[in-house]
Amino acid sequence: MPTVDTVLAFDDGRPVPEVGPWAETKHNMVSYYAKLFATGMKRKWDKRIYIELYSGAGYSRIRDTSKIIMGSPLRALSLADPFDKYIFCEEEPALLRALELRARELAPTADVVCIRGNCDEKIGEITQEIPLGSKENKVLSLCFVDPCDIGLKFSTIRFLSTKRYVDYLVLLALYMDANRNNQNYVNPRSTKVAEFLGVRSWRDDWAKAEAEGVPFPKFLAEAFSRRMEALGYIYQPIYKMKEIMFPDKNWPLYRLALFSRHDRAYGFWDEVLKYSTDQTSFWE
């Protein structure tokens, strides 16, 4: 496993966004899965591509502390068995520039592409950067989707998955956004959930689920998983999606979910879940 030196960072004078303390658990899990994926698939695929749709600056400061940590993009660049190509998308220009410079310093020979803009709007450009595989050149991608709310459009996932083998780690902001803004999102004028699920008739299903006492976050998790299943991915029940809690307050924030078309990926995910009960165990 990576050593602590690949996790802690220092203030280099470039932008360092603040994050909640729970973000460290998220980055640890994503990075550990990326490690298992990159090594486990090294001799089974000719090219392994790492993608982040909400990349950030590569460094983050834990809120109310002086602790700076490396984010998942730079940790992916630090792996013993690195990916063959990295594609990072970030909407904020200053954050993307900081990530680009840090990536160049950390891994100067790595094939890194940085795309500025909203991932939903730039998905065509992102997809073009992924080599189109063939029998002679098999390509497998791992895409980390890390939005701050449920603003991701399902059409983006569908487009990226067409004619390509892509596994996903997806942050589902079921509690920190969806549950908190339940009344706004069920309003007939809101299109947020329809775009998130890629289906307009979701309110009919929600009415049935609500009548049966299903909480809104659980409904969305299962609905999203069914939509992924429609793209050929293995359906994931909510208990297989790692619940991330607000430290010391026992408040759920979101679920981190894996979606793959192959059972092998879930063997890796089970190992991540096994160690995720104690975030420090990833790196000791």
- CATH class label: Alpha Beta
Silhouette? globular
CATH-defined fold name: Rossmann fold
Taking the alpha carbons of the first and last residues, their distance comes to: 8 Å
β-strand amount: 15-25%
Radius of gyration over C-alpha positions, nearest whole angstrom? 18 Å
- Spatial arrangement of strands, main beta sheet: 6-5-2-7-8-10-9
The number of helical elements comes to 11
What's the number of domains? Answer: 1
**Share of helix, binned:** 25-40%
Q: Can you give the mean pLDDT?
A: 93
Order of H and E elements: EHEEEHEHEHEHEHHHHHEEH
According to DSSP, the number of beta strands is: 10
Overview of the molecule:
Strand 5 (85-90), helix 3 (93-106) and strand 6 form a beta-alpha-beta unit. The protein has helices spanning 23-40, 72-77, 93-106, 123-128, 154-161, 174-179, 182-186, 192-197, 202-211, 216-230, 263-275, and strands at 18-19, 47-52, 59-62, 68-70, 85-90, 112-116, 139-145, 165-172, 242-246, 251-259. It is globular. It is an alpha/beta fold and 284 residues long. The strands form two sheets. It has a seven-stranded mixed β-sheet, with helices on both faces. It contains eleven helices and ten strands. Mean pLDDT is 93; it is low at 1-6 and 279-284. The chain has one domain (4-181, 235-276): Vaccinia Virus protein VP39 (Rossmann fold, 3-Layer(aba) Sandwich). Helix 1 (23-40) packs across helix 11 (263-275).
Short description:
With 284 residues, this protein is of the alpha/beta class. The chain has helices at 23-40, 72-77, 93-106, 123-128, 154-161, 174-179, 182-186, 192-197, 202-211, 216-230, 263-275, and strands spanning 18-19, 47-52, 59-62, 68-70, 85-90, 112-116, 139-145, 165-172, 242-246, 251-259.
